[in-house]
Amino acid sequence: MKEKKIRIGTRGSKLALVQTELVIDAMKQVLPDLEYEIVIIQTTGDKILDKPLAEFGGKAVFVSEFEEALLWDKIDFAVHSAKDMPMELSEGLDIVGVLKRDDPKDVLITQKGTNIHEKSTALIGTSSLRRQFQIEQLYHNIECHPIRGNVNTRLNKLREGQYDGIILAAAGINRLKLNQESDFQYKYLDIDECIPAGGQGIIAIEGKKNSEWVSLCEKITDRNAKIELEIERRALKYFNAGCHEPIGVYAKASENQITVWMMKEINGEIVRKKETGNISKGLELARAMVNNIMESI
């Protein structure tokens, strides 16, 4: 009797496909004889590239088509960059698995030989207010302009001289093996100076809560990444954060401890917090930190 097939939905970019292959490779370690099918779905966010995301739906524009496919049983799972997922998922759906986290940091990429400090005004490509507010604290001579497109498109815009530098997630360029291009130089921004977006560096698997394959996703789930993502997403929910608010939250789990970094822009100023506590009290720690920051308003 032929084994069942698992259909995995993904966007069609190189990064999305690489991340989906990582999920399939992990699943094959558990169920090597199963058939796995990649189903490419084009999202609204992939179709509209000439407008900022905030103008036409925010993070949901990268997820809604997948959720519809899941609910109509056209796919069994969807693979996402966790940082791109909205806070509220459709009823009956959940994040059912996460892989081990890659580098969560942001990276400032410039052409070889470029010295941002020497420019009177350096044009930096980023559509993230979180990145913009933090990078402007590190460099007082920069001007941030929006940039859209996949990783390769953005790097090509840098090559063409449209920007003096661009900021990308380290995890993305690592997975695409674009972190050692000979014509670029890379400055990885320390967590304390540029707190990442919630979920940055984590590959999330979305599926039905009652799927027959949920146990498979649980077997490939990384314990620390799961804890970190839960705390980060809960913190964003406590903030009642919109998809493009300048908020950073990062949790780092060890065996018994959790360290949480948070940043939020308030009236043009960045408020930062960093706390460490018992890992079993991670959600309570996140709630207390959010309350402390919100009291600054």
From TrEMBL:
GO terms for molecular function: hydroxymethylbilane synthase activity. GO terms for biological process: protoporphyrinogen IX biosynthetic process. The keyword Kinase does not apply. It comes from the Bacteria. Its cofactor is dipyrromethane. Residues 6-212 form the Porphobilinogen deaminase N-terminal domain. NCBIfam families: hemC. The porphobilinogen subunits are added to the dipyrromethane group. This is Porphobilinogen deaminase. It comes from Mobilisporobacter senegalensis.
